[in-house]
């Protein structure tokens, strides 16, 4: 069927009208209208005419064919023809002439015209008195609301594929905007196609520059565009629209086969079934796959559609702003009042926000400010103090008082009071740690001025509804994007007026102008590019009847408050419409029918006939607008909930076909001041007030309210006001302009007004409210439409809203009850995500997780469980969701708090080793090792720890780590063996063989060996040498460590050397006595500084550190404490420090150090004691030289048998002094009382014995054959000062 229609349309477009008999005239009143009947189609007809308009293809005004209908419905055709009769009256004579021109060939080609597009002037042909309102509205729809789509292959495909997204016929101005290459501001109120223009411009630019090649490489990329707007709903809609347009465009440019075509169609249908064609955009459905930082943006994120809130979050993250709230000092006075006022202290489980928006301001701050102004106006006024000058955080009192009262008239005579309130609000906000959107913007702006944004280069920026932002917000956007090609801002002056905001398009334009100027300097370009400014003034949704009334109010504002709003060209529509109706002498009960019902005293309706159905039914596109909540309740009661009743404030941003404005002037605070309007009429009647700014400034906000109220209507506006005195002036003003119709008020206004709506219309309106997050009204509409499912959903969201709001002004119990109500409602309409969110608000994370699990949302469930510290469950569901990294990290969180988790965590890690990212694996393995290491040290579970280390091996570093750990265990064993002679070589053997395996595995793979690796190997060699009793190998190790300045291992090596020596045969020990003395001295040199250091309390941290390493001491959490590992010999040291042993063996640093020095002392004493004993058997030092020398044959002669050459004498004496020097080392231990009592007693005797034998056997002159004074002299003079001094001291005592 589509094919047949398209074929006919194709013939039409080729101009072959007569050849295919396409011109069957059905009407020829002024312009002929033709019809084409399609064969075999049950009377399907195409209705068309010749017209003219703007064509993109020829970029000019041209003749074109307008298709009015493709239908088989005879009634519809008749209606269209009737309406066309009227429509054609609108055409100007020139229009008619152009349309009727014709080429004379058989084939008719369009003619083009060079004239400017002419705005049709409806007054010319169309006078509203000629017809009834409904007819007029029908014509409006045909002429304006209907969009025409140029015929193209694109259209054909889109139709065939079931899409409806083709760009429709645009006007010349719209075309200019779409093709404007530079930055621009587009101004127009809703209904002027502003957003459409922005999207078209965006998609056009996107498609034109889709595959750019960068000069540096051949990689193609899409142009990067960002679209920002405040409303999540608008953002979502624009994104969807853009994507559909893009899809259509892509499809149109592609050749596809039949199979592909059916495949596509099938997919499309499935999607529609899944999404539901008119699915509602729900709160929290914003896509969150957009990263929170500009640095993380990748090409596939573009074009990027984000809300301003998300944009701010991204900037905060990119600039690394953690907290916006400023720390302020609380002085004592403030604390008192703060405590008193802060009556609702929230328990920590309830999620509170520290972001202040209007709602929070109203609920939390407003009543504290305690004033009789209008909350909304004050809030808006604060933004003047704070958001109008980006150079300062806020205006000073003087600056604020001196800003133009013409520009900002609202509080011009109360500025001091407003400033007081502002200061109070700011102080309170700072105390609460709260911030508002301007605080946030200023904080980011400060950083943005210092540092460029970074991240991928952005080409184009689009901002819609920019009037919703403050000027500082836009300053920030311009600053951040100072390198983009161009920026497109669109906004709505009417909204600006409605919100009473400080935003001015004039200011924005100036800002943009300066921005481009600075950019010229930055880019070193000579071209001045001024931003363009477009005003869209043709309103497609409203008609002139309404628009004239709106303009007349703007005129009043300009008349009385000349600079308070932007100037804008007068908005108009292509058609006239019914004039608004003003009811004269209206009284409340005129609303109702006089028969059939009557009013009680309290003005409630009482039905006379007892019928329970509402007597009037309003439509979905109708609303009664009232001033305040009190009036709202009254009217709602009056009409028995038959239709929508909303306050002026609530209707902002909404539009309705029909509006009944109820008691606007009666309930206006301006009262008699409205009379000043008469002065604008230049009437000289007496009693008219002359305008004075001071007396009448309240009207500046009242006019705005009135403007909002009347512009909510698209088609019909009825004004009913009881107070004739207050409403008379404006009525007179409007009557003078002849823009209202007055009617005598009599009963039954509402039944005249009411137009019943179909269920789908209520549904549509409900959806509208729902997406605007006005849930109460949405509930009302869905109730009317009978859509129970949506009513429930709206109700759930409404309950959630109530609960969220209550956070600001209720106690914990109320809040929790409120959230539970919402949860129940969400569960009933299967919105587990929302229910879970509610649980999270009140800190019930487990319950949130359970809800997610029920609906198989495993990842979300896992995240909730994580917050509830239910790690096991969190891990389980992360695993189910195949989020292995997250699962692993959850295990980590788990085991850090509960050690039972370690084993499961290890199992998990091994199971999913391949699926966990390297980074996460290393991190978690590290933590596991730390734990097992600590357990090993605390409880001696070394074997277990080694096994875990082994399991977790993943790379070279891990092997090094386990080797280090094994060496650590070996050290403890060695310490035990040599320090306290607990010998159990099998353990050492065990660990060394483990090491051996690992080393064998590693060595073959290592190409270049690091120093660290060599150190490890040498230490391993040392311990192996110890087991093998290989004294020479040990000697090599000593040399190695000494050269590498590894004091700890050097100490071990020297000790091991001494230890091995003791296990050798008597002969060998004797032969190596000199060496032994040397190593003993060496050991003293290493150890005694530590002992001195500790006892003298010098605290040389390097020495301390070295000895802590030697004794395997571990850090504890407290820097004043240290941990002694399990089975460390220090634990056996005689304890006299008086610190009780605890489970973990954590002691104070002093205790540990004392233990070390004690342990060292006893080791040194024993070694020296043994050297003393063995030394007495060595004739070189402990005997005289035998007078027979080497020829002595005396049995049992204990003397030394050598030939007394001077060099042998020298050697003897030197060795003797060496022995004596070693003996002297006991002094340190003795002096520092590190020896046991019996040991101490021995020290002096022993030293004395060696001093005596020195004198006796070596120094005293005996005979020329066996003594040589010169040698004695040489040796004495080469002695160290210390030894000589000590020796002389003792010698004195003995012999003098
Ligand atoms: Zn002898």
From TrEMBL:
Q: Which Pfam families match?
A: UvrD-helicase (PF00580), UvrD_C (PF13361)
Q: Which residues form the UvrD-like helicase ATP-binding domain?
A: 183-497
Keywords in alphabetical order, please. Answer: ATP-binding, Helicase, Hydrolase, Nucleotide-binding
- Gene3D superfamilies cross-referenced by the UniProt entry: P-loop containing nucleotide triphosphate hydrolases
Q: What are the UvrD-like helicase C-terminal domain coordinates in residue numbering?
A: 642-719
User: Could you state a single Gene Ontology molecular function term?
Assistant: ATP binding
Q: Which InterPro entries match?
A: DNA_helicase_UvrD-like_C, P-loop_NTPase, TPR-like_helical_dom_sf, TRANK1, UvrD-like_ATP-bd
The signal peptide stretch is none
Q: What is this protein called?
A: P-loop containing nucleoside triphosphate hydrolase protein
UniProt source species: Rhizophagus irregularis
Q: What is the lineage of its organism?
A: Eukaryota, Fungi, Fungi incertae sedis, Mucoromycota, Glomeromycotina
């Amino acid at each position: 069927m589509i094919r047949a229609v398209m074929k006919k349309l194709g013939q039409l477009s080729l101009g072959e009208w007569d050849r295919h008999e396409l011109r069957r005239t059905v009407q020829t009143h002024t312009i002929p209208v033709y019809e084409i009947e399609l064969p075999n189609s049950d009377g399907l007809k195409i209705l068309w005419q010749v017209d003219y308009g703007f064509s993109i293809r020829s970029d000019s005004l041209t003749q074109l064919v307008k298709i009015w209908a493709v239908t088989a419905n005879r009634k519809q055709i008749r209606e269209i023809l009737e309406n066309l009769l009227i429509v054609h009256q609108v055409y100007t004579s020139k229009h008619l002439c152009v349309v009727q021109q014709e080429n004379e060939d058989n084939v008719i080609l369009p003619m083009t015209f060079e004239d400017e597009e002419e705005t049709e002037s409806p007054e010319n042909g169309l006078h509203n008195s000629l017809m009834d309102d409904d007819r007029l509205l029908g014509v409006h729809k045909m002429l304006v609301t209907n969009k025409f789509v140029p015929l193209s292959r694109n259209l054909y495909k889109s139709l065939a594929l079931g899409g409806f997204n083709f760009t429709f016929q645009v006007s010349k101005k719209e075309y200019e905007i779409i093709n404007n290459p530079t930055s621009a501001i587009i101004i127009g109120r809703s209904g002027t196609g502003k957003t459409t223009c922005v999207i078209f411009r965006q998609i056009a630019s996107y498609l034109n520059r889709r595959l750019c090649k960068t000069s540096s490489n051949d990689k193609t990329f899409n142009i990067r565009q960002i679209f920002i707007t405040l409303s999540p709903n608008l953002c979502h809609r624009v994104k969807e629209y853009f994507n559909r347009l893009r899809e259509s465009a892509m499809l149109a440019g592609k050749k596809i086969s039949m199979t592909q075509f059916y495949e596509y169609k099938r997919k499309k249908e499935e999607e529609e079934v899944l999404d539901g064609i008119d699915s509602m955009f729900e709160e929290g459905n914003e896509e969150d796959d957009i990263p929170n930082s500009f640095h993380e943006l990748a090409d596939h994120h573009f074009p990027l559609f984000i809300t301003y809130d998300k944009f701010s979050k991204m900037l905060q993250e990119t600039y690394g702003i953690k907290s916006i709230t400023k720390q302020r000092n609380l002085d004592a006075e403030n604390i008192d009042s703060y405590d008193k006022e802060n009556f609702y202290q929230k328990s920590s489980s309830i999620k509170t926000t520290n972001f202040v928006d209007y709602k929070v301001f109203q609920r939390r701050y407003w009543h504290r400010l305690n004033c009789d102004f209008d909350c909304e106006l004050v809030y808006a006024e604060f933004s003047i103090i704070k958001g109008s000058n980006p150079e300062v955080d806020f205006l000073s009192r003087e600056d604020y008082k001196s800003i133009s009262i013409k520009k900002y008239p609202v509080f011009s005579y109360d500025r001091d009071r407003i400033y007081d309130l502002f200061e109070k609000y700011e102080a309170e906000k700072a105390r609460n740690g709260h911030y508002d959107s301007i605080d946030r913007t200023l904080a980011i702006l400060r950083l943005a001025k210092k540092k460029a944004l970074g991240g991928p280069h952005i080409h184009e920026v689009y901002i819609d509804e920019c009037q919703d932002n403050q000027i500082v917000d836009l300053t920030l956007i311009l600053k951040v994007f100072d390198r983009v090609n161009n920026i497109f801002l669109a906004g709505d002056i009417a909204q600006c007026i409605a919100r009473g905001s400080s935003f001015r398009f004039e200011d924005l334009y100036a800002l943009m102008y300066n921005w481009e100027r600075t950019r010229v300097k930055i880019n070193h370009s000579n071209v001045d590019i001024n931003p363009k400014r477009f005003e869209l003034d043709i309103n497609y949704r409203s008609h002139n009847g309404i628009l004239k009334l709106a303009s007349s109010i703007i005129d009043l504002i300009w008349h009385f408050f000349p600079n308070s709003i932007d100037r804008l060209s007068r908005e108009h529509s292509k058609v006239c419409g019914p004039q608004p109706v003003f009811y004269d002498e209206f009284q409340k009960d005129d609303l109702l029918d006089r028969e059939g019902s009557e009013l009680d005293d309290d003005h409630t309706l009482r039905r006379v006939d007892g019928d329970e159905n509402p007597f009037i039914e309003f439509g979905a596109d109708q609303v009664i607008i009232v001033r305040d909540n009190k009036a709202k309740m009254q009217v709602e009661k009056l009409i028995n909930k038959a239709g929508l009743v909303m306050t002026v404030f609530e209707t902002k941003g909404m539009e309705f076909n029909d509006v009944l404005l109820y008691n606007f002037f009666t309930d206006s605070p301006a009262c008699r001041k409205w009379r000043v309007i008469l002065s604008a009429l230049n009437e000289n009647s007496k009693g008219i007030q002359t305008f004075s700014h001071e007396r009448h400034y309240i009207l500046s906000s009242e006019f705005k309210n009135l403007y909002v109220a009347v512009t909510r209507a698209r088609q019909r506006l009825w004004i009913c006001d009881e107070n004739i005195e207050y409403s008379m002036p404006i009525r007179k003003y409007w009557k003078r302009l002849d823009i209202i119709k007055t009617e005598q008020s009599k009963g039954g206004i509402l039944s005249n007004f009411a137009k019943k709506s179909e269920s789908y219309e209520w549904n549509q309106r409900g959806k509208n409210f729902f997406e605007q997050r006005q849930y109460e009204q949405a509930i009302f509409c869905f109730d009317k439409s009978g859509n129970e499912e949506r009513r429930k959903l709206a109700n759930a969201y409404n309950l959630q809203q109530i609960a969220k709001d209550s956070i600001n002004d209720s106690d914990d119990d109320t809040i929790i009850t409120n959230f539970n109500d919402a949860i129940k409602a969400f569960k009933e309409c299967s919105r587990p995500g929302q229910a879970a969110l509610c649980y999270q608000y009140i800190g019930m994370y487990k319950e949130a997780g359970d809800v997610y699990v029920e609906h198989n949302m495993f990842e979300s469930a896992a995240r909730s469980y994580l917050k509830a510290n239910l790690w096991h469950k969190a891990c389980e569901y992360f695993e189910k969701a195949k989020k292995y990294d997250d699962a692993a990290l959850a295990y980590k969180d788990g085991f850090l708090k509960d050690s039972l988790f370690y084993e499961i965590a290890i199992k998990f890690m091994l199971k999913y080793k391949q699926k966990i990212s390297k980074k996460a694996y290393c991190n978690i393995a590290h933590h596991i090792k730390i734990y097992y290491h600590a357990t090993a040290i605390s409880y001696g579970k070394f074997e277990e720890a080694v096994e875990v280390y082994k399991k977790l091996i993943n790379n070279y570093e891990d092997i090094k780590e386990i080797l280090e750990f094994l060496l650590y265990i070996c050290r403890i064993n060695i310490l035990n063996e040599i320090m306290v002679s607990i010998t159990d070589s099998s353990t050492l053997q065990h660990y060394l063989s483990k090491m051996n395996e690992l080393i064998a595995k590693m060595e073959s793979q290592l190409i270049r060996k690091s120093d660290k690796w060599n150190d490890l190997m040498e230490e391993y060699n040392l311990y192996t040498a110890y087991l093998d009793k290989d004294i020479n190998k040990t000697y090599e190790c000593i040399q190695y460590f000494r050269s590498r300045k590894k004091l700890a291992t050097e100490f071990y090596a020297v000790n091991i050397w001494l230890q091995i020596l003791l296990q050798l045969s008597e002969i060998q020990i004797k032969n190596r006595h000199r060496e032994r003395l040397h190593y003993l001295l060496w050991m003293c040199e290493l150890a005694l500084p530590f002992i001195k250091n500790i006892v003298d309390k010098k605290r040389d941290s390097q020495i301390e550190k070295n000895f802590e390493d030697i004794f395997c001491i571990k850090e504890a959490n407290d820097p004043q404490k240290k941990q002694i590992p399990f089975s460390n010999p220090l634990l056996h040291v005689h304890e006299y420090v008086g610190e009780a042993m605890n489970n973990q063996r954590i002691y104070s640093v002093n205790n540990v150090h004392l233990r070390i020095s004690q342990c060292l002392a006893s080791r040194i004493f024993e070694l020296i004691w043994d050297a003393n004993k063995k030394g007495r058997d060595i004739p070189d030092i402990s005997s005289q030289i035998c007078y027979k020398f080497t020829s002595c044959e005396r049995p049992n002669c204990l003397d030394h048998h050598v030939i007394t050459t001077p060099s042998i004498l020298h050697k003897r004496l030197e060795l003797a002094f060496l022995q004596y020097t070693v003996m002297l080392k006991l002094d340190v231990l003795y002096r520092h009382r590190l020896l046991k009592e019996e040991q101490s007693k021995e020290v002096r005797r022993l030293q004395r014995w060696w001093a005596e034998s020195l004198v006796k056997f070596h120094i005293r002159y005996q005979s020329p054959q066996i003594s040589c004074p010169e040698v004695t002299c040489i040796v004495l003079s080469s002695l160290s000062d210390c030894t000589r001094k000590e020796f002389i001291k003792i010698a004195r005592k003995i012999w003098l």
